[in-house]
Every structure is written in structure tokens, then in C-alpha cells.
Amino acid sequence: MINISRGGVGLVLPRHFECGIPFSILVKSPLNDMLYELQARVIDSTVRDDGTWLVGCEFFIPLREDQLEALLS
């Protein structure tokens, strides 16, 4: 994971994904070891210099502030 916000997440992945593809992303909080299943869709996919892909995803339901804080801790 490169970054996360209330509205989405940027992931570095080994392959390209088409825009609109739905994703289910599992993220473990370092704060409380809680596992979050985040539902998102791909909105952008860009190749990086090392051949990996930066895949931008938008959450179907934005994170609450407390959820974001738990994932950023």
C-alpha cells in the first residue's frame, strides 16, 4: 500500500488492472490488529519504472475518520 485516505487507496501491484474492476482489500490495523475488508474499484493504473503498477482505487463507502486513524497508526 502506497497511501490511503478516507476516499481511496493507492496500491503497488505486479500487474495492470482495468478501470472499473471491483476490489476487496484486506488491511490489518497496526493500532488494534483489527482486520478491515475494504470494497473499492480501480480508477487509475499506471506503470512504474520498475515494471510494477500503481493502482488507484476508490472506496465504495468512504472510511470513517476513526477507521482511517486506525489504519494510519
Note down, in words, how this protein is organized.
The chain has 73 residues and is mainly beta. The chain has one domain. The chain is built from one helix and five strands, in the order βββββα. Strands 1-2-5-4-3 form a five-stranded antiparallel β-sheet, covered by helices on one side. A hairpin with a 5-residue loop joins β4 and β5.
Q: What keyword list fits this structure?
A:
mainly beta; 1 helix; single chain; 5-stranded antiparallel β-sheet; 73 residues
Distance between the termini: 14 Å
Counting DSSP H or I runs of 4 or more residues, the number of helices is 1
Described by the principal axes of the CA atoms, the overall outline is globular
Largest sheet: 5 strands, antiparallel
Low-confidence stretches: none
Number of domain units: 1
Order of helices and strands: EEEEEH
- Overall pLDDT metric: 92
Q: Biggest sheet: strands side by side, in what order?
A: 1-2-5-4-3
Structural class: mainly beta
What is Rg?
A: 12 Å
Percent range for helical residues? 10-25%
Instruction: Name the beta content range.
Output: over 45%
How many distinct beta strands? 5
